Amino acid sequence: MTKPSLSSLTWFTLCAAVLVAFAAAVGVFWQTGGQPFQYTTLRGQTVEIYNQGLYQYDQSVIAVGFRIGDAYALLVGLPCLLISLWQARRGSLRGRLFLAGTLAYLLYLYLSLGFGAAYNHLLLAYILIVSLTLLGFFAAIRTFDTASLPRHYAANAPMRGTGIFLIVTGVILFLIWLLLSLLPALLAGTVPAELGS
């Protein structure tokens, strides 16, 4: 692990942590007094709009999901980010792997919010978090000596089983989405319900 990459990794991670704490806290705690209302989309579907807090322009079911994601980021993601950074700075390979995984999780979460949530006051924060976590993830990856990584795993580590599990899970989730959402909507000439607004 080179010192410059650890230094940049630390700064990317700490800046991302501050923004994640801010964005997630706003998503969880900022509430307005609006009541949900029905809205007819351009495609003629009637959906319920949340009309509260940061996610006031999103469908209710999606807005609640975003708020749960924010709460999870505050309660689990942020502590994991800081703990894994602390471990990585102490020279732990597990800490660096944990940090890369946590940065990837936050990258996915805030990419989803940036593209999936209706425009809100935190779009620039989402863009900054995505940028910082992406740069941090690549900085974390650069700290690994990939040639020596295999020797850190036990010879009997369940790599094949883990790989099969991940592939099967991904295929099943895709098939569920395809068979329960996309194909019925295509056959009916409508839009999947979860994409209503």
Question: Which helices and strands, and how do they pair?
Answer:
Elements: H1 3-29, E1 37-40, E2 46-49, H2 60-89, H3 93-116, H4 123-142, H5 159-188
Antiparallel strand pairs: 1-2
At a glance:
By secondary structure, the chain is mostly helical. It has helices at 3-29, 60-89, 93-116, 123-142, 159-188; strands at 37-40, 46-49. It folds into two domains: 3-152, Butyryl-CoA Dehydrogenase, subunit A, domain 3 (Up-down Bundle), CATH 1.20.140; 154-197, no CATH class.
Explain what the structure shows.
66% of the residues lie in helices and 4% in strands. It is mainly α and 197 residues long. The chain folds into two domains: 150 residues, Butyryl-CoA Dehydrogenase, subunit A, domain 3 (Up-down Bundle), CATH 1.20.140; 44 residues, no CATH class. It has a two-stranded antiparallel ribbon with strand order 1-2. A hairpin with a 5-residue loop joins strand 1 and strand 2. Helix 2 runs antiparallel to helix 3 and helix 3 runs antiparallel to helix 4. The longest helix is centred in the middle third of the chain and has 30 residues. 25% of the residues are buried.
What are the defining features of this structure?
single chain, 197 residues, mainly alpha, Butyryl-CoA Dehydrogenase, subunit A, domain 3, 5 helices, 2 strands, 4% strand, flat
Q: Summarize the biggest pleated sheet.
A: 2 strands, antiparallel
Report the CATH architecture of the largest domain.
Answer: Up-down Bundle
- CATH class designation of the largest domain: Mainly Alpha
Instruction: Note the total helix count.
Output: 5
Strand elements, count = 2
Low-pLDDT stretches? none
Structural class: mainly alpha
Helix content: 55-70%
Radius of gyration: 20 Å
How many structural domains in the coordinates? 2
